[in-house]
Amino acid sequence: MRPIGKRLKSAILIDESNAIHQLHDMGITGIRSWKKFYQVVEDYLKANYGDKMLTDYNFYGTLPPKQLDETKYNNRYKFLEALKHDGINVYRGECYFQDNRYVEKGIDLLIGLDLVEFAFYKYEYVVVFSGDADFVPAVERAKKNGTLVLALLGREKAAFHLRNIVDVVIDLEMIIDQLEPDTLIRKS
């Protein structure tokens, strides 16, 4: 039980590539304001765990190799900089082109390290928007340190291992329903 009047700490960690896959499964191709998305998730935390809460917004993505497509690189760079301007912490992994596709490296490690670090610094709540089973060991360590770990998952997302290890699963469809319709970019 948390002490009354205590200022709570929480963090929301979004794995961009995994989040986008889940959104695509729902017919959503993008979010016009990630800050609004974070705020709706934070409102869920406040409504369920206490409104005296400070929340860190964290976004994990990559930039494509500049030498392959400078326009795509510049657009992604501007996108990530706009997130920073909105007060969102942006962490970048590596991206390279292999076997006719882009390959991201380091994102899962960055998220796992942050999950454990937030627990070490006594964050009460950490939300992970990803269905990746690679986070299971980090979730276990965070929980061992007393952090309540929540996963933001779509109803159709299997994510069996993550669903079974987190303390709470937040329904992605419920969060989407609380966003203003013009915040969502839907498939045409």
TrEMBL record:
InterPro entries: LabA, NYN. GO terms for molecular function: RNA nuclease activity. It comes from Paenibacillus oralis. It comes from the Bacteria. Coiled coil: none annotated. Pfam families: NYN. Residues 10-173 form the NYN domain. PANTHER family: SLR0650 PROTEIN, SLR0755 PROTEIN. This is NYN domain-containing protein.
